[in-house]
Specification:
- By secondary structure, the chain is mainly alpha-helical.
- It has one domain.
- It is about 70% helix and about 0% strand.
- The protein has six helices and no strands.
- Helix 1 packs antiparallel against helix 3 and helix 3 packs antiparallel against helix 4.
- The radius of gyration is 36 Å and the shape is rod-shaped.
Length: about 220
């Protein structure tokens, strides 16, 4: 009977080997494109473009802005407190020292809060840039086009390098410490302690003993 003869075993083996080689070559080319794209992305997001100084400058910009405002508020609060103490005739009293201590405590807490926020915001910037790098990887693996992925990454890097902290005016950071002898001192010390002031007892003592000076010398 006529017709084509079935392929020999050698022909089948050769065909399968060629298919395997073609698939391997295709995968090698794919991996080469991915490696090329990943290398470009890594270079764009490297320490060359985002050194430690980049993040430090970001943090310093926020701290310089907020700490300057905090210092201004502290100076105003201290001036107001000094005026009120002088008006009440207690500028050189133990009450004045206690009030100053409360103001300094508020200032220390505020400074620590501003530092913590700057640290948190800087960490968020690092995370944002790392997320953008991961997005560039995802695009590369989805498209397998290193040129498109690199161009997108370059745009993300350019925008990230322009990032500045969100600088908003601070609210009132200090609570009034002294408003007047009859109203502020009870607020600073508490009613029981204020009663001790009137009886000559020293609220700074754990035993409430010892005379407390409440007028200038």
């Amino acid at each position: 009977m006529g017709g084509k003869s079935a392929p020999s075993n050698n022909q089948m083996v050769a065909f399968e080997m060629q298919q395997a080689q073609d698939a391997a070559d295709k995968e090698n080319l794919r991996q080469a494109r991915l490696n090329q794209g990943k290398a470009a992305i890594d270079q764009l997001f490297s320490n060359q473009n985002f050194p430690d100084s980049f993040y430090q400058n970001y943090q310093n910009a926020e701290l310089n802005y907020t700490q300057r405002q905090l210092q201004q508020q502290y100076d105003q609060a201290k001036a107001g407190m000094t005026y009120d103490l002088a008006r009440a005739g207690t500028l050189r009293s133990t009450a004045a020292g206690y009030a100053q201590g409360l103001l300094e405590q508020q200032n220390a807490v505020n400074e620590a809060g501003l530092q913590a926020k700057a640290d948190s915001d800087t960490a968020a910037l690092r995370q944002s840039i790392a997320s953008q790098q991961q997005q560039a990887y995802n695009q590369l693996y989805a498209t397998e086009d290193p040129t498109v992925a690199a161009n997108t990454a370059a745009s993300s890097v350019a925008n990230a390098q322009l990032q500045q902290p969100n600088l908003n005016p601070l609210g009132d950071m200090f609570k009034p410490v002294v408003i007047g002898m009859t109203s502020a001192i009870p607020g600073v010390y508490g009613a029981a302690t204020y009663n001790n002031l009137n009886t000559g007892q020293n609220p700074a003592s754990p035993f409430g003993t010892g005379a407390m000076t409440t007028s200038q010398t």
